[in-house]
């Protein structure tokens, strides 16, 4: 039995080492349709070897294997119910957007002479065989050249129906704890998963942080269709641990609005939409540091003195990820923060339907009830004001204006403050600056040089500078004031002190 498990671990390690961070669809336990990708062909020999080894082990240790069936059954029960589902959508297999047949290309692997002998029995061809040879040779040569008509990838209001591909970008730093939340939201997206390429950038994490390892592990489960069951088991264990600790681990929850907490609970409870467990078109994981030394605590990140430096470094990270992950066939780029707590699964379609070049929702966050229960979170989506333009004239060219601080009285109209939950969520208003929690932009903008300024652009940087740059180049930038995403609540130092005071008071009573 020990030999069997030792071999199993070695095979698993070999599989884990393969491909680095690439997670192509062929790694999924969900079955691809036919032999559409040449990636599969390179796996055949490996699978044959593994199959032979398993058969040998079965013959030698059949009694041991039979004895271990109950153990394997327990492990196997932690899988999704979609075993054997065939991934029919062409989008899973059009990685190169080339009209080629991998079976034809394979014929030339041994050289042209070998091809002629094996296919036609002679290197002197009949006119009919010559036509076949010319056609297949042309396909071979065409496979080495990729051409894209970028007018086909400009983006439209109905991207799902038009088969438009979306690059979904997520920057991550010390984000291990929020990864389950992030992946649940990704699975809940109703935009066709086969049209979404995921790109994660892990950067500047602290030494003991495990964001990168956890991200890769979750991504593999995601592409295998088993991640929802993994999270169900984790949630059950967390609930039991919370019950054992008598609710002291997240003490602030006692002071939150019960209706909000119930909404969160319902949002992550089944039934889910029918494609919840469906793998995405691809997953890319990047790791690169940019020298970000500012802490990830709420008070650290939001101190006014660090905002300019922090925003410029974040701009560098976003630009780096865009430059490395954007492909010619992407029509849209969707930027999303990992720490969003509530968001409609249809957010991509909802923003896309407005047919703006850049569109953002409103972003609020819940608060304890002793702090009025809720608060605008993202103040970086705004309409320009005369006061702000005059303020910029008084600043050095490298100074960065940041919203929500007394040091920068801009008197702008903020998208967050004109929210009315009773009004039409489809209403959209023109903006000048945008926040970075959730941005949908046409890929054309990035191809034409618009970026998240990692320098001071008209006294702004990163996402606000991105909005201003897009407007300056003639693109439409808009925000939905009544369409709201909810950011997670992160207790500030002052909040924690107030909660501690209330706990002490309650014990005295």
UniProtKB/TrEMBL annotation:
<comment type="similarity">
    <text>Belongs to the ANP1/MMN9/VAN1 family.</text>
</comment>
<keyword id="KW-0472">Membrane</keyword>
<dbReference type="GO" id="GO:0000009">
    <property type="term" value="F:alpha-1,6-mannosyltransferase activity"/>
</dbReference>
<dbReference type="GO" id="GO:0000032">
    <property type="term" value="P:cell wall mannoprotein biosynthetic process"/>
</dbReference>
<keyword id="KW-1133">Transmembrane helix</keyword>
<protein>
    <recommendedName>
        <fullName>Mannan polymerase I complex VAN1 subunit</fullName>
    </recommendedName>
</protein>
<dbReference type="Pfam" id="PF03452">
    <property type="entry name" value="Anp1"/>
</dbReference>
<dbReference type="InterPro" id="IPR029044">
    <property type="entry name" value="Nucleotide-diphossugar_trans"/>
</dbReference>
<dbReference type="GO" id="GO:0000136">
    <property type="term" value="C:mannan polymerase complex"/>
</dbReference>
<keyword id="KW-0812">Transmembrane</keyword>
<feature type="region of interest" description="Disordered">
    <location>
        <begin position="14"/>
        <end position="35"/>
    </location>
</feature>
<dbReference type="GO" id="GO:0006487">
    <property type="term" value="P:protein N-linked glycosylation"/>
</dbReference>
<dbReference type="InterPro" id="IPR052086">
    <property type="entry name" value="Mannan_Polymerase_Subunit"/>
</dbReference>
<feature type="transmembrane region" description="Helical">
    <location>
        <begin position="44"/>
        <end position="61"/>
    </location>
</feature>
């Amino acid at each position: 039995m020990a030999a069997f498990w030792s071999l199993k671990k070695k095979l698993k390690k070999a599989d884990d080492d393969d491909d680095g961070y690439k997670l192509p669809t062929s790694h999924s336990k969900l079955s691809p349709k036919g032999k559409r990708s040449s990636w599969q062909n390179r796996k055949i020999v490996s699978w044959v070897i593994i199959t032979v080894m398993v058969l040998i082990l079965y013959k030698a240790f059949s009694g041991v294997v039979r004895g271990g069936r109950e153990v394997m059954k327990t492990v196997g029960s932690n899988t999704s119910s979609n075993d054997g589902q065939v991934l029919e959508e062409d989008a899973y297999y059009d990685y190169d957007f080339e009209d080629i047949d991998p079976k034809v290309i394979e014929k030339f692997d041994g050289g042209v002479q070998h091809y002629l002998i094996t296919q036609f029995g002679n290197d002197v061809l009949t006119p009919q065989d010559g036509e076949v040879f010319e056609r297949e040779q042309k396909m071979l040569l065409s496979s080495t050249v990729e051409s894209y008509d970028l007018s086909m990838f400009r983006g439209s209001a109905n991207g799902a129906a038009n088969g438009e591909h979306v690059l979904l970008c997520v920057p991550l730093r010390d984000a291990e704890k929020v990864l389950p939340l992030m992946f649940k939201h990704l699975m809940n997206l109703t935009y066709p998963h086969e049209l979404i390429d995921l790109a994660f950038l892990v950067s500047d994490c602290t030494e003991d942080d495990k964001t990168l390892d956890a991200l890769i592990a979750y991504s593999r489960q995601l592409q295998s269709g088993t991640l929802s069951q993994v999270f169900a088991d984790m949630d059950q264990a967390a609930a039991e641990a919370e019950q054992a600790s008598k609710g002291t681990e997240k003490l602030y929850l006692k002071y939150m609005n019960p209706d909000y907490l119930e909404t969160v609970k319902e949002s992550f409870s089944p039934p889910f939409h029918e494609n919840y467990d469906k793998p995405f078109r691809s997953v890319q994981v990047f790791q690169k540091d940019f020298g970000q030394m500012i802490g990830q605590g709420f008070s650290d990140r939001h101190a006014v003195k660090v905002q300019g430096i922090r925003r410029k470094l974040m701009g560098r990270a976003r630009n780096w990820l865009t430059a490395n992950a954007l492909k010619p066939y992407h029509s849209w780029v969707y930027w999303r923060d990992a720490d969003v707590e509530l968001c409609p699964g249809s957010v991509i379609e909802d923003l896309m339907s407005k047919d703006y070049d850049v569109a953002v929702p409103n972003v609020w966050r819940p608060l304890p009830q002793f702090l009025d229960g809720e608060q605008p979170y993202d103040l970086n989506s705004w309409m320009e004001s005369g006061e702000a333009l005059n303020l910029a004239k008084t600043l050095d060219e490298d100074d960065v204006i940041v919203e929500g601080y007394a040091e920068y009285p801009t008197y702008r109209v903020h998208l967050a403050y004109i929210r009315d939950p009773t009004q039409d969520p489809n209403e959209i208003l023109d903006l000048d600056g945008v926040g970075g929690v959730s941005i949908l932009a046409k890929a054309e903008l990035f191809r034409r040089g618009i970026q998240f300024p990692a320098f001071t652009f008209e006294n702004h940087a990163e996402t606000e500078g991105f909005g201003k740059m897009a407007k300056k180049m003639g693109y439409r930038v808009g925000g939905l004031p009544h369409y709201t995403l909810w950011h997670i609540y992160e207790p500030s130092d002052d909040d924690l002190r107030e909660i501690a005071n209330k706990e002490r008071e309650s014990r005295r009573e």
